[in-house]
Amino acid sequence: MVTYDTGSVTLERVREYVWEIPPTDGMRVPARVLASEQLLDEISDDKTLEQLQNSAHLPGVQKYTLCMPDGHQGYGFPVGGVAGIDTEDGCISPGAVGYDINCGVRMLTTPLEYADVQGHEEELVDRLFAAVPSGLGGGGVYEGSVEDVDAILERGMDWALEQGYATEADLEHCEDEGYRPEGDASVVSEKAKNRGKEQVGSLGSGNHFLEVQRVTDVYREDVATEFGLSPDQIVVLIHCGSRGLGHQVCTDYLRQIEKRHGDLLAQLPDKELAAAPAGSQLADEYYRAMCAAINFAWVNRQLVMHRTRDVLTDVFGVEREDLELLYDVAHNIAKKEVHDVDGEDRELYVHRKGATRAFPAGRPELPPAYADVGQPVIIPGSMGAGSYVLRGGENSLAETFGSTAHGAGRLMSRTQAKQEYWGEDVRDDLRDHQHVYVKAQSGATVAEEAPGVYKDVDEVVRVSDALGIGDRVARTFPVCNVKG
Predict the structure, then answer these.
(1) Any known ligand binding at 380?
(2) pTM of the model
(3) 120 labelled catalytic
(4) CB-side neighbour CA atoms (13 Å) of 447
(5) Does residue 85 lie in a domain region?
(6) How many domains in the chain?
(7) Among 116, 175, 284, 403, which is most buried by a count of CB atoms within 10 Å?
(8) pLDDT tens digits for 156-205?
C-alpha cells in the first residue's frame, strides 16, 4: 500500500510503519503516524489525525509532528503525540502536555517469583488496596500543609529522601533523578496547592493503577540482566500523575494564555492548542509551574511505592533493600532538550503527551546505571494483557525526538466502555479465566478499564521495536491490580 485514505485525509507511506500527511492549509510541517495498517485502522477511527494535523500549525514546530503507535484522540493534541518546538521562536502549549502533568509509570523489582505469590493473590490485592489511597478527591499517604507542597514542588524526590520515603538508589533510577530544578512554587496557584496537599501518595482514578506482575518473556537477555529482570520474577507497576494539582496548573495557564495571547490563539485551528509564545512571561511561568508539577508527580509515585514496599515486606518477609526501583518514566511533559534538526543542534520544547522518552545509550541525560545500555521504557497494557519493558532504540533520536509509545492506547471512550461492559463481570472473568485479581473503588472503574477497550499492546510494541525507537526487553503479565 502506497497511500492510506481515511475519506477525509490521505496518508502517504514513507516506509514500513511510517505514514505522512503532507503540509496543507497552514500546517508548518508534515504530520507523521507510526503504525501498522491494523493500528492505523484504529487510529483513524476518531479525531486523532485531525488533531495531529492541527498540532502542525503551532509556531516553531520542527521536522514533523508525530503520532505514536498507541495514538488516540485527546484534548486538542492527540494522546500519543510528540512535537519538538523551538524554544526561541516557537511556543509551549499546555494542551500538548495534558492536564495530568507527568502522568507516568515506574517499575519496582522484587526477589519474589510467581510461585511465592500464588495462593496469596487475594490477601495481597486487599492489603495493597487498603494501604494505597485511591479514587477521586482527597486522601494521600502524606497529608501536609501548603508549605509542605511548596517544598515538594521545588525539591521533588530530594524532599522524599529527606523525609525517609526514598533511598539514594531510588533517585538514581528515576528520570532526571526525580528533580526538575526549574520547578517554582511561586507560579503555582494556591488553589492548585490546596488540591495537592491532601493527595501526596495516591493513585487517583481512571486509568491509574498499581499492578503486581510476573515476567513472562525475556527478549534481550543481556539488557534484561542490566535491568535486573528474569523469567517468572514478580515486579510491581505504578501508574499515576500529579493529581488535582497538575490538573489545576493546566487549567490556570490555559485560561491565562487565552486572555493574554488571543492573537496567537486566533492563528490556530483549535483553541485547545492554546500556546504561549517562547520568550513571553507566560511561557516562562508555565514552564516553571509545569516543572513544579512534574516534581510533585514524582513524589506522588514515590510515596505509593513506599507503601507498596511496606506491604511486600509484611506479607512476604522480603527485605526493603531488595525491592528496587528499575526506573520511573514521565508521559505528559514538555522538556527543554537539544536535538539535531537539519544537521544543527537546537534547543526544543519536546512535547510528549501520552508518549515516553526513549533515549538510546550514550545520551547524557541517562543515569550512570543505564548510560551504556539505554534508557528503560515501561509500556503498560490492559488488565488482561501483557505490559512491556523496552530500552531506548538507536533510531529514536532521528525519528521521534527520542520518543516511543506510552501504553496500549484506548479504542473506546469511557462512556462507551460502561455501555459495553459490566464491572463485576469483567472482574470475575479476569479472576476465573486469567487468574488476575482486581480490586477497585467501583465497578464502573473496572468497566471503563476492561481489556477490550484497549488496543493490542503486543502490536504497539512490535511496531516500536521494528522501527528501532524502543527495543523489546521483557514482557510481563498481571497477577493482581488495584484501581481507583
Answers:
(1) yes
(2) 0.97
(3) no
(4) 16
(5) no
(6) 1
(7) 403
(8) 999 999 999 999 999 999 999 999 999 999 999 999 999 999 999 999 98
